[in-house]
Amino acid sequence: MKLILPPGVSHARFDQALAAFARVVGREWVLASDEDRETYLDLYSPGRDDSHAASAAVAPASVEQVQALLKIANEYRIPLWPISRGKNFGYGGAAPRLPGTVMLDMGRMNRILEVNDQLGYCILEPGVGFFDLWEHLKANKIALQLGIPGNGWGSVVGNALERGFSPAGDHSNNICGLEIVLPNGEVVRTGMGAMGDGKAWPLFKHGFGPSWDQMVVQGNLAIVTKLCLWMKPADEAAISIEIKLPKPSDLQWCVEALAPLRLQGAIEGLVRLTSFQASVTVPTLRSQWHQGTDSIPDDVIAQMMQRMNVGWWNGPLRLAGFSDVCEANLKRVLDRLAKFTKQEFPVTRMRGDAQPGPTTYPLQMVNWYGGRGGHIGYSPVMPADPKLVQEQFERTRRRYQQFGLDYSGTFYLDGRAATNVNLILYSKDDEDQKQRVRQLFQALIKDAREQGYGEYRTHLSYMDDVAASYDYNHNALLKLNERVKDALDPNGIIAPGRNGIWPKAYRAHRGVL
Amino acid sequence: MTRWLLALALALPVAGWADELTAQQSAGQKAFAHRCGMCHREGGTGTFVLARRLGAAQSLLEQRTDLKPEYIRYVVRWGLMNMPRLSRVEVPETDMTDLVAYLTRPRPAAAP
User: Fold this and answer.
1) pTM for this structure?
2) Which CATH number fits the domain A237-457, given the four candidates 3.90.550.10, 3.40.462.10, 1.20.120.140, 3.20.20.140?
3) Which CATH class is domain A11-108?
4) What is the pLDDT of residue B13?
5) Which of A1, A336, A410, A482 could cross-link A421 (Cys pair, CB 3.0–4.6 Å)?
6) Residue B52 forms contact with A (CB below 8 Å)
7) How far apart are CA A310 and CA A264, in angstroms?
C-alpha cells in the first residue's frame, strides 16, 4: 500500500516523527514500508482499501514506551490508532478510521500478568490472544472458563474493549479495572487500582466516585495497557439442549418460551437462535446450492436444511453450573418448551469443563461465494420481545432479498435485550454485489432507527452513520463525547473518528470516506 | 477410507523425522504452532480451505514439500485469497526465518 500521510502533516515532518518513534521502540518496530502498510489493511472491507489505510505502525513494548510515543505524537500531530492484535474482522480488522493514521500496535505487550483461580480473574496486556490464555489455563491446570468469540484468533483485551461477546455474555461486563495512558502521557489506574497498591483492583468494579472503565470501552480517550477481567470458575456440569426449529415463524414462540427463563436465571448465558445459513456457509460453497444472483430462494433453503440436518432456527441451548441445578433447570426449560410445541429436543449431558477451545473455523464463511470474500455484520440491539423479534427478522430478511443477498441472522437474548447479529457475506471481486451490500447496510441502519433500535458495534466505514442514529436532542450524547474528547485530547491524536467521535482537529473528516 | 490411508501415509514420514529437526527448524515448528497452527493444523480454517482448493493431500502446510521460501514470505505478508496478512509484529522477521526453515526442511524421499 502506497503511503497516505496523516492529514496536515508534510512528508518531512512525518519522517521526523517516525525517526523519533524509532528512537523509543527501535527501528525494527516502526513499520512503514509498502508491505508493512499492506498488513494493516482491512482484508474484508466492502469498500476501497484507501478509505482506511494506515501510514505506518509503531509497536511499543512497555507502558513507558507508550508514554514516550504519545509525547511525540502530540508534538508532531500524528494520529495513533491503538489495536490489540488487529483481528477485529468484519469491523475493520487492524485498520484505522482515518487514512494516514499510524497504528499503535500493542501486540508486543502480550504478558499474562496474573490468573487467580481463587477469586476468579486475570490481568492481561492487550497482546494476549484467546489462544494464549487458553493454552495458559490448560498448561497450568487452572479451572477458570474463558468466554470465546467466534473468531478466537484475536485479543482478549481488544475483544472486551469492543464489547465483543460469546454465548457466555457481554465480555465488557467482566472488565474490572484498567490501566490506561491518557493522551498527555499520564498513567491512570481505574477503580480500586487508583490506590496504586489497591488490593481489590480486579475484584470490585467501581472504586470511589465515577467509574471510568466504560468511558474507555469503544472510545478513544486513552490507551489501555492492562485490563483486569473476571473469569468464571469451571462449571461442574453442562447440558446442551438441541434446538432445531423447522419454520421461520418458529422464532416468535421460541423467544416467548425462553426469554422469561433467561430473565429469571434458569438459563445463565445468552440464548442464541441462529438461522440455517450459519450451518451452511462454513462447510459448503454457495455454488453447490444455487447459481442465481438473487437471495437464495425457499425451495433451495429447504434442500439445505434437509441435507445439512439443520433447522430454520437453531440452538444449542446450554445450561451449566452445579449438576443438580442443571437438572432442575433442564426440566423447567423442557416443560416450558412443551407448552409451545410437541417437538422433542435432544439433550446431551457433559462435564462442565468440556468447553471447546478458541478457533477460527467460522471464518471459512468468507469463502461462501468462492474466491476472495468478505463479511460485515449489522447488529442492532432491541427488546427481547417475541413479536418484535419476529418482525425484526422478517423486515431484515425482506431487505436482504431486495438487494439479492443471502440472509444470515442470529438473535442473542439476554432476557431483556436481544442483539440481532446480521451477517452479510460477499465476494470481494464483485463490485456490483459490494454496491448492493453497502445499500443493504444503509437500509438496515435506517430501518432499525425507525424502530428505535441501534447498533452495538460497527465497521469503520459505518461508524459515523451509526453514531448519527443515536440522535436524541440533536445527537447530544455524541456532542458530550466530543467535548470530553477535546478536553482530554486537545490535539486529537488517539483514534480520531472511532465510533463517530471526532476531535476538533479532524472533525471535517466526519462522514468522509 | 482411501483418504484416511493417504493421510496416514503422508503423516508417517513426518512423524519419523520430527526428532531430527535442527535447532532452527525446531524453533520454526514452535513458531508455526504459535503463529499459524490455529488455522493451519488439523481441523483449522486454512487447512479446510486449502483442501477445498488444492485437495486434502496439499492441505496441511507442515506436510507440504513444495513450499518455497519466497512464497511463504509473500503469503504471510500479503495474504492469499481469504488469508489475512500478518504484520511484522505478529510474525517478527526472526520467526519468519525459522518458519521458512521449518516448512522448507529437507524431507526423505517418499516411500516407494
Assistant:
1) 0.94
2) 3.40.462.10
3) alpha beta
4) 45
5) A410
6) yes
7) 29
